[in-house]
UniProtKB/TrEMBL annotation:
Residues 488-519 form the SUI1 domain. The keyword Transmembrane does not apply. Keywords: Cytoplasm. Residues 379-463 form the DM2 domain. Belongs to the eIF2D family. This is Eukaryotic translation initiation factor 2D.
Length: 535
């Protein structure tokens, strides 16, 4: 449901009565929840708002956001927990189903969980899938971590799942890690809770699926085989070992999250040098290299975040590589660093190999349409970042650095004027300026008691910092460009012998492959010459 970008219609702060209403609804939906649990989920002093969303499919959804995390969402007046909520209270509120770790990335592409992808204990017979009715809210975790990775509803009752003979859809996925509802929160990784059943048994053995796609796409068939099965309910986890064949124990390596992010950052950097940046022109701004090469090199099932690594900043990571002799970094302009040299003969670069299972597409989004490569442009949205000047106006709802659309700014200003009763009583088209609006909107030495709605909006946008959000096809995280986007510039110049050349700059910003672009222009120019000769 949230695997494609949605439109935020409003994001309104709530009062104390709304907190009580949400707590009562949570207690009604989940009778096992305690007062201590509610205090964790909805702290009295934490910022809270209701975000109204229009999904890509036109569905209207409302989500309660507490402390920058969506914790529940409502669809047609039915409440569902987010994975953020389930991470706070793991394995407590709703039933869990377990699938293989290889299947989890498929959810973010809009796939549902098919019955072959659910790890169960078939020897339990009719109760292998529990005692659930159709349409019950459930969570999905993986065989390597019992933390929830998806929320959905059962497509069949438990008995019907068993009678289906492991064919067909088992769970309709509504929300999962990596989707845009998850991105609307803090984007944190799931807690490491250990594999399902690790508390009761240290010798669980599992057989991973040969094809993760076959157990997440409706209508596909899988090869019949006997597997180890695990069934997980809110309070009970049962296991059994494989029926046939030899099996080696799967060792789950518990890594520090920072170490994992360090490995991912290094992998993406060296992969970029082997792929998109193989023939890059130097020097190149470090910020551009990160945005145009390192980020696109990240595997599709993972999310790269330098702040979650031990380096914390890109400059420190590049400084480490400089000390190792992999690259040179210089300041050609004060405060602006550029990569000035890359030593491709360095051992780390020569020995690096791209993972054969890496399905990420570091090159610009091109897809085959017959015999022609079709470039898919990004969806570009002009946004405005909250800076120190405008922070007092947005305090309590948004934090510094938050990117807002024009509609979100207008909605916030309207709500601010309404709450503070600033609309002029005699002339509704005018807004009276309180001290905060005066400090933000008025120029130095300027005096005014009121502004029109249009003037208020235009001045607010002028005070905020301009950013652009670029969402490229087949890429999970959007690319944020600060300041104005550089346009593609096409100029002509003269070279030796009065030869005319065409100079094109700015293609990298839009992920247009330079070699492919040059190849196409050469082919089109050659065809044009042949057409003229025929005439």
């Amino acid at each position: 449901m949230f695997n494609k970008p949605f439109r935020v219609k409003s994001n309104t702060p709530v009062k104390g009565s709304e907190r009580k209403k949400l707590k009562a609804e949570l207690q009604k939906c989940y009778p096992t929840i305690t007062e201590e649990d509610l205090a964790l989920l909805v702290p009295n002093k934490e910022d809270m708002s209701v975000m109204k969303i229009e999904t890509h499919g036109g569905e209207i959804v409302s989500a309660h956001v507490v402390g920058k995390k969506p914790i529940v969402f409502h669809i047609r007046d039915k409440l569902y927990p987010t994975i953020y909520l389930l991470w706070i209270l793991p394995n407590k509120l709703i039933p869990y189903f377990t699938t293989w770790n290889e299947v989890v990335p498929k959810f973010n592409n809009g796939a549902d969980l098919m019955l072959p992808g659910i790890i169960v204990k078939e020897e339990m017979g009719l109760r292998a899938y529990g005692r659930l009715n159709k349409g019950v809210t459930v969570a999905v975790n993986s065989n390597t971590n019992s933390a929830a990775v998806a929320v959905g509803i059962t497509a069949l009752s438990s008995e019907d799942m068993y009678m289906a003979g492991r064919r067909g859809k088992g769970i309709e996925i509504l929300h999962c890690i990596g989707d845009f509802l998850w991105q609307a929160g803090t984007k944190e990784s799931p807690p490491e809770l250990g594999p399902p059943g690790s508390q009761s048994s240290d010798n669980a053995k599992e057989t991973a699926p040969q094809d993760a796609t076959a157990i997440t796409e409706e209508g596909t068939e899988t090869e019949e085989k006997k597997e180890e099965n695990v069934v997980q309910a809110p309070d009970v986890i049962q296991e059994c070992s494989p029926d046939v064949g030899d099996s080696t124990e799967v060792q789950v390596e518990q890594k520090n999250p920072q170490e994992s992010m360090d490995e991912l950052l290094n992998y993406c950097f060296f992969k970029a040098l082997k792929t998109s940046a193989k023939k890059i022109e130097l020097p190149v701004l470090t910020s551009n290299f990160y945005r145009l090469h390192i980020v696109p090199a990240c595997p599709s099932e993972k999310i790269l975040d330098v702040k979650k690594s031990s380096y914390k900043k890109l400059s420190k990571f590049l400084e480490t590589l400089k000390k190792e002799g992999v690259i040179d970094v210089k300041e050609f302009t004060k405060g602006v660093e550029s990569i000035s040299a890359i030593r491709y003969d360095h051992e780390r670069i020569r020995s690096f190999r791209v993972d054969i299972n890496d399905k990420a597409e570091p090159a610009p989004a091109l897809e085959k349409v017959g015999e022609i490569d079709k470039y898919l442009p990004p969806v570009i949205t002009r946004m405005y970042a909250i800076n120190a000047v405008c922070l007092p106006l947005f305090a309590g709802t948004y934090r510094k650095g938050t990117n807002l659309t024009t509609q979100q700014i207008r909605q916030h200003l309207t709500e601010y004027v309404r709450v503070n009763q600033l609309q002029n009583a005699t002339n509704p088209s005018q807004v009276n300026l309180d001290p905060i609006l005066s400090d933000v909107m008025l120029k130095k030495g300027e005096v005014a008691a009121s502004h029109s709605w249009e003037e208020l909006m235009s001045r607010c946008q002028a005070k905020l910092s301009t950013v652009y959000e670029m969402i490229f096809p087949n890429q999970l995280a959007p690319v944020i460009v600060k300041g104005e986007l550089e346009p593609v510039e096409i100029t002509t110049a003269s070279r030796a012998g009065n030869k005319k050349v065409t100079l094109i700059s700015g293609l990298e910003t839009y992920r247009i492959d330079l070699d492919e672009f040059a190849r196409r222009q050469f082919i089109q120019g050659f065809d044009l010459k042949k057409a003229k000769n025929k005439k």
